[in-house]
Amino acid sequence: ARGDLGVELSAHEVPVVQKQIVSQMRKAGKPVVVATQMLESMITNPIPTRAEANDVANAIYDGADAVMLSAESAAGDFPEEAVDMMESIIREVEASEPYRERMEHSSLPLLETGPLIEHAMIPAARNLARDLHASAIVCLTKKGRIAQRLSQERSTRPIIALSHSRKTARHLLLSWGVYPIDVYNACDRMDHADQIVKYEDISFDRVISIASSLALKKDLAKEGDMLVVTGWQPRGVPGANILRIVKL
């Protein structure tokens, strides 16, 4: 929140510190939200200043997980226009080639590497998805760690995170590029309820089957596309220890 930063810092220091915070949170694998006065003029005007539009775009280029409106949508005269404008800026930046190149080739040293196997597998999944032009990366996650590590790699491919935990799925909504799916609800709606078994007993082939159906259903992929699927060998070591390429 730049308003809080502004209480502690001079105005000219805030941009530098903001970028440092975003960078450190990315290294730590923690979601980071940039907020306060993003489109401040839209409290009373239907369009923002060009400087405000650039401010939002810069936060996205830095790799923030989210940008947030406050007074613009809570008490402003043009709340819907403010939301639409922010979405338009986000989509424009994310569709640009410089942004995609920056994200796909960004490699930050991690503050906490986690298990060695996972540390090697997750970047490999990101690189495979990029090199093979896969439509999405898929993982099944219990507490969200694998999905968060994939998000930390900033692949421009959507990350389909399947979870048996509604709490985990909701938590992952904040992570960059992650499309969390509550497996129980999703499979029930798709008449695949018979595919649901205990998390510890589910097979990797079943993960692929469910993920493929959901990717097609949610228009994240189409027939003939490739998915990069990462996860674990049942009853194996925790974290990601399998990597598979699937053609739909």
From TrEMBL:
Residues 120-246 form the Pyruvate kinase C-terminal domain. Pfam families: PK (PF00224), PK_C (PF02887). Its EC number is 2.7.1.40. It catalyses: pyruvate + ATP = phosphoenolpyruvate + ADP + H(+). Residues 1-83 form the Pyruvate kinase barrel domain. This is Pyruvate kinase. It is an enzyme of class 2 (transferase). GO terms for molecular function: ATP binding; kinase activity; magnesium ion binding; potassium ion binding; pyruvate kinase activity. InterPro entries: Pyr_Knase (IPR001697), Pyrv/PenolPyrv_kinase-like_dom (IPR015813), Pyrv_kinase-like_dom_sf (IPR040442), Pyrv_Knase_brl (IPR015793), Pyrv_Knase_C (IPR015795), Pyrv_Knase_C_sf (IPR036918). Keywords: ATP-binding, Glycolysis, Kinase, Magnesium, Metal-binding, Nucleotide-binding, Pyruvate, Transferase. The lineage of its organism: Eukaryota, Sar, Rhizaria, Cercozoa, Chlorarachniophyceae. Gene3D superfamilies: Phosphoenolpyruvate-binding domains, Pyruvate kinase, C-terminal domain. Belongs to the pyruvate kinase family. Its cofactor is K(+). Pathway: Carbohydrate degradation; glycolysis; pyruvate from D-glyceraldehyde 3-phosphate: step 5/5.
